[in-house]
Amino acid sequence: MTGDDRGGGKLSGREGFAQSSQSGTPKPVPVPVAPTTPAPEPRDLTPLIRTLKLTEDHAAEPTVIVSPDELLQVAQALKAHGFMLMDSVGIDYLAYPEARPKRFAVLHNIYHPHDHRRLFLRVWLDDGETLPSVYPVWRAANYLEREVYDLIGVTFTGHPDLRKVLTPDDLEGHPLRKDFPLGESPTLFRDGRFLDPAAFRAGLTGQSGGLTGYRGELRRGQGTDRLPPVMPEGGPK
């Protein structure tokens, strides 16, 4: 070994090549990454609500408040975005503990079948106030609005066949209204079914066997549950 080798002189061979390579190549400078905006939730309805200039309601599910005059316009816009009508319900807030804008509300359940977004349209109504039917937009409103008309008493203008769908024709009043009297009058339906309220309620409360025959005894803490028959091994004997 020469003095140059011992004294830290120029190296040769692989060591020299490695040293020259390390000293001559600039180190890469890390490029700062700009913060990215998180992608919107696919089922977020906020952009659509803003686009249609709707008023959000405070509810557990995405809900907007729509006036009767703008209901058909909003329904047409939602249909153009691919939404369909899934359900329509009526609500009576007569006995509700908190103040509400009006006594009744009709909720249209609107659903998108592709991305599974769901939006509720809430329309506040006074007693006797009519509401435009969404049947011209969604044909599914036929029986849905008839049920609300029958049980709550909301009249839908423009509906092609607005008549009762659940209760007998001669029943006065609307059973889902909070002020509907809960009497004990037996009810005879058009198809011949006869419903005695006392016997029907007894089977639910456990006062007697009621229409179920035996369920009432379980609610009173009597009897034993009846297990369904089990197919024996090897099939029926």
TrEMBL record:
It holds the Pfam family Complex1_30kDa. It catalyses: a quinone + NADH + 5 H(+)(in) = a quinol + NAD(+) + 4 H(+)(out). Residues 1-44, 211-237 are annotated as: Disordered. It comes from the Bacteria. Its EC number is 7.1.1.-. InterPro entries: NADH_DH_suC, NADH_quin_OxRdtase_su_C/D-like, NADH_UbQ_OxRdtase_30kDa_su, NADH_UbQ_OxRdtase_CS. SUPFAM superfamilies: Nqo5-like. It is a peripheral membrane protein. NDH-1 is composed of 15 different subunits. Subunits NuoB, C, D, E, F, and G constitute the peripheral sector of the complex. This is NADH-quinone oxidoreductase subunit C. It comes from Deinococcus rufus.
